[in-house]
Amino acid sequence: MTPLASSRQWHLAKRPTGTPTTDDVRFVTVELPPLAENEVRVQNEFISVDPYMRGRMNDVKSYVPPYQLDRAMDADAVGRVIESRSPDLPVGQLVQHFQGWRDVAQGDASRFTARDEVPGVASSVYLSALGLTGMTAWVGLLVIAGMKPGDTVFVSGAAGAVGSAVGQIARLRGSGRVIGSAGTDEKVALLTSRYGFDAAFNYKSGKVSRMLHEAAPDGIDVYFDNVGGDHLEAAIFAFNDGGRAAICGAISSYNSERAEPGPRNLAMLISKGLTLKGFTIPSYQHHAPEFFREMTPLVASGEFVFDETVIDGVDQAFDAWLRLMRGENTGKMLVRVDGDA
Q1: Which whole number is the average pLDDT over 199-219?
Q2: Host H or E run for residue 299
Q3: Which domains does the chain carry?
Q4: pLDDT given at position 261
């Protein structure tokens, strides 16, 4: 493969107000300098688009820095080394890194992590089942919420990449019952037929608290929250004493222009002895070895199933992200970089 000397990239042009549009970004071509000592150049194969990126478009302090204007946005990605001045990362090595939103990445070898091939599985697995997505599900369910065998688990946004992983890990770890919510009847059917959920409901078809009670008449013990809003309020109502929630996301309010009101029933945290704990994966990277030990053989054997919605072409990355935010994905939303070649 002839090494590329340029990189097509998505830059943030201005800070969005409300729902981002194509006016807020710019797709540009940037010339790359020759490699310095210990640097590598990587042809990306897949890049990840995720809901948390909406927060990074705002100029506010968070657990990750905001995107800079007129600079390439970053994101999780996998690719192969096409040129190297590093003895540790030879040409052809599969690597994972954080220079997404572009077709070609370049930098010091320390910014790229070598990954082993998983037989019969595309490299995109390191962005989904064996990536931040899978680890978010594993850490949230087992470390943050402390799920125990026999627990009844409720997952919001359950047909998404993280949610579908949570449900399966709960089942594999011996949960008593797993319940999920999703935004279409097709996704609801997928939860029970493919991902092994015991029950699921379409949150757009009625009041969430009522549907959750019907699905879990004996209450829930663990809630994995990807949505916030009425789902969190419903979970608090449904919790048994000592219930635990892993607060992972609040996609229902990401594009709101003003603060959304919180759950009206927070006093139940006191009477029921509930624990609601938020988390972000950078603080739990020390669990990665255990995560890989458990999940890699499950993925390789097919015992753990996962879906990816793949959009072809790096030039379609922003559209893929918009589609993700509208819920037009099943499982992990990814961009196959060379799909437009």
Answers
A1: 97
A2: helix 288-301
A3: 6-127+307-340 (3.90.180.10), 132-282 (3.40.50.720)
A4: 64
